[in-house]
Write a structure and sequence with these properties.
By secondary structure, this protein is α+β, with helices and mostly antiparallel strands. The protein is 27% helix and 21% strand. The structure holds a DNA duplex.
DNA sequence: AATGGGACCTGCGCGC
DNA sequence: TGCGCGCAGGTCCCAT
């Protein structure tokens, strides 16, 4: 579930809290989440290092360490980073020199932790499309040309544009008044411009509200993100559209729940 | 090339 | 009350 706004929120929270702190001990309670290298090497490479810098690329968090290595964290759907640890048994805990711990939780064990020499060499990172905020309108328009794919799965395609997932794709398309099944290359100039604008606006607003706390997403403090109060379409199937009162539909698109208003979105 | 499905997981809510 | 099932979605992988 954590998409760009949630991961960006965690990044900004972490930046304030853990930069400059030293990791004294790493406890791996569930080895499944450590994907690279071995658990032993993972611990060895982290213990004694301090955190120099926190970065975000797409939905991925990167903690750059004083020893030149990087801790790469993909939260997937249910991953959480909580500081200070709240006593619930985490999958992995990073004990810091101040006696507190940064806890990594992940109910469904989809998340991935990696300790790497060069995070940019990770295949997933290499395959990523541009960050939404790095794009210009012209570039974005060109990207949509010759794409016959349905627009919603395309927005969620990380090799096309990075950071947008199921929730924000629905919100962006509703506000752009574009039907999620429209072929990308069928969008008019005006629609492409609107889509570009709404993409930035929705993601920016969501960051301002500190993300959407549905399912497992919490901030590093354990607090919630408040963008759910601004949702107009996601999760509202059967309820009246906030603009025209038409009942909101839910369909399956690319295996994902897709919410839209059949009157507002054409 | 694009699309569809299954796999990975677990907890929750639903129907019976 | 309890059980089994489907669903939730990020990403990879395979088949068509």
């Amino acid at each position: 579930m954590p998409e760009l706004p949630e991961v960006e929120t965690i990044k900004r929270d972490l930046e304030k809290i853990i930069v400059g702190k030293k990791i004294v001990e790493v406890c791996v309670h569930h080895p499944t989440v450590v994907r690279e290298p071995t658990v032993k090497e993972f611990k060895k490479g982290l213990e004694g290092a301090s955190i120099k810098n926190v970065l975000r690329r797409a939905k991925v968090l990167i903690l750059e360490l004083s020893n030149g290595k990087s801790l790469v964290i993909h939260l997937k759907m249910t991953g959480q980073l909580v500081y200070p640890g709240n006593g619930e048994k985490p999958r992995v805990s990073f004990n810091l020199s101040n006696g507190k711990s940064l806890d990594f939780n992940d109910q469904r064990l989809f998340a991935e932790l990696r300790l790497m020499d060069d995070w940019k060499s990770l295949k997933f990172i290499q395959g990523l499309g541009p960050e939404p905020f790095d794009l210009t309108l012209d570039k974005f328009k060109k990207m949509l040309e010759n794409k016959r794919t349905k627009i919603k799965p395309l927005l969620m395609d990380q090799s096309f544009i990075s950071g947008i997932g199921n929730l924000y794709a629905s919100e962006i398309l509703f506000r752009s008044k574009i039907h999620p099944e429209r072929p990308a290359n069928s969008l008019s100039d005006k629609e492409r411009e609107g889509l570009f604008k709404q993409t930035r606006e929705v993601l920016n607003d969501a960051i301002r509200y500190k993300g959407s706390s549905i399912d497992d997403y919490v901030r590093v403090s354990g607090g919630k993100g408040n963008y759910v109060s601004q949702h107009k379409i996601y999760g509202r199937q059967g309820l009246p559209c906030l603009v025209c009162r038409t009942l909101i539909k839910k369909i399956n698109l690319g295996g994902r729940g897709t919410y839209f208003c059949s009157k507002c979105q054409r």
